[in-house]
Design a protein that fits this description.
- The complex is a heterodimer of chains A (about 290) and B (about 280).
- With about 290 residues, chain A is mainly alpha-helical.
- Chain A contains twelve helices and two strands, in the order αββααααααααααα.
- Chain A has helices spanning about 1-35, 50-55, 60-90, 95-110, 110-120, 130-135, 150-175, 180-190, 195-220, 225-230, 245-255, 260-285, and strands at about 35, 45.
- A two-stranded antiparallel ribbon of chain A has the order 1-2.
- With about 280 residues, chain B is mostly helical.
- Chain B has helices spanning about 5-35, 35-40, 55-65, 65-95, 105-115, 120-130, 140, 150-160, 165-175, 180-205, 210-215, 225-235, 240-275.
- In chain B, helix 4 packs across helix 8 (about 150-160) and helix 4 runs antiparallel to helix 10.
- The relative contact order of chain B is 0.13.
- The chains are: A mainly alpha (about 290), B mainly alpha (about 280).
- At the A-B interface, helix 1, helix 3, helix 4, helix 5 and helix 6 of A face helix 1, helix 4, helix 5, helix 6 and helix 10 of B.
- Chain B: InterPro entries: MetI-like, MetI-like_sf.
């Protein structure tokens, strides 16, 4: 008896905190999404108007489009490089494996604020390091932070820099967990290196690849700090760096449209959920 | 040259080249923090160290209350880490080694909470903080974050495998109640798991930006990330100073990470592959 009571006491902090700081805000945000409120005055019932407005709000859809573009620019090179690094590190004769893992992982520990400040200097329009590189090989200078695609490239490259090592470590662990006997058996059966790569390595890695795709989808849809530091609350030139969360932040806390901000939150939630399911199906579907 | 040594040459060139790209922003950060702002705006860029580090640092210390922000961040990150370790291990141990009615669906509920994006409830959470009178207070940063589902899940996995049931039975025969078992038997065994969860939590809180940006209204309570972003916004002509401040804020985390990197990286990898 005493023991069971103690067990409930032991697990209760999480549920109490979740009820207060998780469940209640979620319920309240649903309520808020149907109201008009500036945070100080009276809350007035607004029906579906916040959602209706969102569906026709060009800025919202631009933010959705931007977020997707940045996600694509970031995720494809990130997972590609991560896979290559993992394969190189997995080669049996590599020495200093720990040193390499730490070196590749280090960017992930750095704060995004710091990363955004450094990348601001790398991509600066006039004196940036990248423009110096371009010029020194005889290419024209690019005004990265004035061009809509340039802003997206700058934001994506921060994500790539910060997360490639992280994903490489995960792929490496996946590679190391594939039983060596599978490769030996394939060799005896006369399989070539390429055959065993596509027949053994890729199928065995699929769950790990799925994990990295899902986590980078969720992370990518929630991008905020990188654009906010790099180009500010309005998303920079042509709002090209306006992501969904940045838009939610601006509408809620800069413009004080709390009700509309809550509706945008639900829109984002739906998009993440749908997109995660689609990704899940795509990556899983290939295995059958 | 044999084909094998050629292969390994290519491999090392690839690995080292990749690592140079990975490390270059750090290097450039250090170089720029030792230069004047007009050096930074020079074309071609300066790639070697200058002698202005101390000047830049002293301007950071004049412009913002750097040590104040540093101590704020250390206090919040440290306290949240200790609380998370305590509450998560207590709950993780209970879930791993004991039976009680409702355990299964309580655990499923716990996992389900990890799926909800925190930005969804950004506005109501802020309203809640305002209602409690916690806006502008560290309570808003510490209390909602002091126990989390991920840590409970992670400790549970670790405890299930690493704490022998015989040891718990022996403790019970000696008359230990749940909390004595937790304190005397589980805690010492769980210590290696604390290194990862502690570092993971500490780094996360140290680097948190969006939530502190919303709830911290008083400059004396700013954490490093917020103070740094203010520096970036207000004085963006004095770029050398901003960069020097950035360097100062990054160094403690990097030092900590280098100390625990081996354990940290292998635990992250293990967590991802297990599922």
């Amino acid at each position: 008896m005493w023991e069971q009571r103690a067990l409930y006491v032991a697990i209760s902090p999480f549920y109490i905190l979740f009820a207060v700081f998780g469940l209640f805000p979620i319920g309240f945000s649903l309520y808020l999404a149907f109201h008009k409120w500036d945070g100080i005055g009276v809350m007035t019932y607004n029906g579906l108007n916040n959602f209706k407005y969102m569906l026709t709000d060009a800025e919202f859809w631009q933010a959705v489009g931007n977020t997707f573009m940045i996600w694509i620019y970031a995720t494809i090179p990130m997972l590609f490089f991560a896979l290559i690094i993992a394969f190189l590190l997995h080669a049996p004769f590599v020495k200093f494996r720990t040193l390499f893992r730490v070196g590749y992982f280090l960017p992930n520990v750095t704060s995004i604020v710091a990363v955004a400040i450094i990348f601001g200097a790398l991509f600066a329009n006039n004196y940036g390091f990248l423009n110096y590189l371009l010029q020194s090989v005889g290419l024209p200078v690019v005004e990265w932070l004035n061009a809509p695609w340039g802003i997206k490239v700058a934001i994506s490259s921060m994500v790539v820099w910060r997360w490639t090592g992280y994903n490489a470590v995960i792929y490496l662990a996946g590679l190391q967990s594939i039983p060596q006997t599978l490769y030996e058996a394939a060799k005896i059966d006369g399989a070539s290196g390429i055959q065993s790569f596509f027949r053994i390595t890729i199928p065995m890695l699929r769950p790990v690849i799925l994990f990295t795709v899902i986590t980078s989808t969720i992370g990518g849809m929630q991008l905020f700090t990188e654009p906010q530091i790099l180009v500010g609350n309005d998303g920079g030139a042509g709002a090209a760096g306006m992501t969904i969360v940045l838009y939610l932040y601006r509408e809620s806390f800069i413009n004080n449209y709390f009700g509309y901000g809550a509706a945008v939150g639900w829109g984002m939630f739906l998009i993440i959920a749908l997109f995660s399911i689609v990704n899940w199906k795509l990556v899983q579907g290939k295995s059958s | 040259m044999t084909s094998k040594s050629l292969k390994s040459l290519v491999l090392y060139i690839g690995l080292i080249g990749g690592m140079l790209i990975s490390m270059f922003p750090f290097y450039w950060l250090i170089v720029m923090s030792t230069r004047t702002t007009s050096d930074i705006y020079k074309f071609p860029p300066q790639l070697w160290f200058g002698s202005e580090l101390w000047n830049n640092v002293s301007r950071v210390l004049q412009q913002i209350d750097f040590w104040g922000a540093f101590m704020n961040t250390l206090f919040v990150s440290g306290l949240v880490t200790v609380l998370v370790l305590f509450f998560d291990s207590l709950a993780g141990f209970a879930f791993a080694k004991f039976e009680f009615p409702g355990k299964k669906w309580l655990f499923v509920l716990l996992l389900a909470t990890m799926m909800v994006p925190s930005q969804l409830s950004l506005v109501p959470s802020f309203v809640l903080m305002a209602t409690f009178g916690w806006v502008g207070s560290f309570k808003a940063l510490i209390i909602p974050g002091m126990v989390n589902a991920f840590g409970i899940f992670w400790i549970r996995q670790y405890a299930t495998e690493s704490i022998p049931n015989d040891l718990l039975d022996a403790g019970r025969i000696d008359g230990c109640n749940f909390f004595r078992l937790y304190w005397n038997v589980a805690l010492p065994i769980l210590r290696p798991a604390f290194a990862f969860l502690g570092a993971f939590t500490f780094i996360g809180v140290w680097n948190d930006y969006l939530w502190p940006l919303i709830v911290l209204t008083d400059a004396r309570k700013y954490t490093l990330q917020i103070a740094l972003s203010q520096l970036n916004g207000l004085y963006n002509t004095d770029y050398a100073m901003v960069i020097a401040g950035t360097l100062l804020a990054v160094i403690p985390l990097i030092v900590m990470f280098l100390f625990i990197s081996r354990q940290f990286i292998s635990d992250i990898a293990a967590g991802a592959v297990k599922d």
